[in-house]
Amino acid sequence: MNMVLKDAVERRVSPDEPGSEEPQDSLVVLRGDTVAAVCQLDELADAAVSWEDARGEAIPAVVH
Predict the structure, then answer these.
(1) 20 to 30 A Cα–Cα from 21, which one of 1, 44, 55, 56?
(2) pLDDT at residue 34, as a whole number
(3) Count of CB atoms within 10 A of residue 8's CB?
(4) What pTM was estimated for this model as a whole?
(5) Distant-in-sequence, close-in-space partners of 3: CB < 8 Å, separation ≥ 6
(6) Please, are residues 54 and 13 in contact by the beta-carbon 8 Å criterion?
(7) Is the pLDDT of residue 46 over 80?
Protein backbone atom coordinates (compact mmCIF):
# COMPACT_ATOMS: atom_id res chain seq x y z
CA MET A 1 0.00 0.00 0.00
CA ASN A 2 1.18 3.51 -0.76
CA MET A 3 -0.04 6.69 0.92
CA VAL A 4 0.07 10.29 -0.27
CA LEU A 5 0.04 13.01 2.40
CA LYS A 6 -0.58 16.69 1.74
CA ASP A 7 0.55 19.42 4.20
CA ALA A 8 2.24 16.77 6.36
CA VAL A 9 4.56 17.51 9.28
CA GLU A 10 7.42 15.16 10.13
CA ARG A 11 8.32 14.93 13.82
CA ARG A 12 11.49 13.26 14.95
CA VAL A 13 11.63 12.11 18.57
CA SER A 14 14.56 10.22 20.10
CA PRO A 15 15.70 9.35 23.64
CA ASP A 16 18.86 11.50 23.47
CA GLU A 17 18.22 14.48 21.20
CA PRO A 18 15.70 17.34 21.33
CA GLY A 19 12.58 16.75 19.29
CA SER A 20 12.23 18.49 15.98
CA GLU A 21 9.41 19.37 13.62
CA GLU A 22 9.93 19.70 9.88
CA PRO A 23 6.98 21.03 7.88
CA GLN A 24 6.76 19.67 4.35
CA ASP A 25 5.88 22.08 1.55
CA SER A 26 4.78 19.45 -0.93
CA LEU A 27 3.24 16.02 -1.14
CA VAL A 28 4.86 13.13 0.74
CA VAL A 29 4.57 9.59 -0.61
CA LEU A 30 4.91 6.75 1.92
CA ARG A 31 5.45 3.18 0.86
CA GLY A 32 3.57 0.58 2.88
CA ASP A 33 6.72 -0.86 4.41
CA THR A 34 7.63 2.51 6.01
CA VAL A 35 4.28 3.43 7.59
CA ALA A 36 4.25 3.17 11.39
CA ALA A 37 0.93 4.80 12.38
CA VAL A 38 -1.87 6.91 10.96
CA CYS A 39 -4.52 8.57 13.10
CA GLN A 40 -6.71 11.60 13.54
CA LEU A 41 -5.12 14.51 15.36
CA ASP A 42 -6.54 16.41 18.32
CA GLU A 43 -5.18 19.83 17.36
CA LEU A 44 -5.64 21.32 20.87
CA ALA A 45 -3.77 18.45 22.55
CA ASP A 46 -1.06 18.57 19.87
CA ALA A 47 -0.55 22.31 20.36
CA ALA A 48 -0.05 21.74 24.10
CA VAL A 49 2.95 19.41 23.56
CA SER A 50 6.44 20.88 23.78
CA TRP A 51 7.99 18.89 20.91
CA GLU A 52 11.49 20.25 21.65
CA ASP A 53 11.30 18.57 25.08
CA ALA A 54 9.70 15.32 23.81
CA ARG A 55 11.72 12.11 24.15
CA GLY A 56 10.86 8.60 22.96
CA GLU A 57 12.25 5.14 22.40
CA ALA A 58 12.85 3.50 19.04
CA ILE A 59 10.05 1.42 17.54
CA PRO A 60 11.04 -2.27 17.67
CA ALA A 61 11.61 -4.14 14.43
CA VAL A 62 8.58 -5.85 12.93
CA VAL A 63 8.82 -9.62 12.55
CA HIS A 64 6.60 -11.09 9.84
Answers:
(1) 1
(2) 64
(3) 15
(4) 0.47
(5) 29, 30, 32, 35, 38
(6) yes
(7) yes
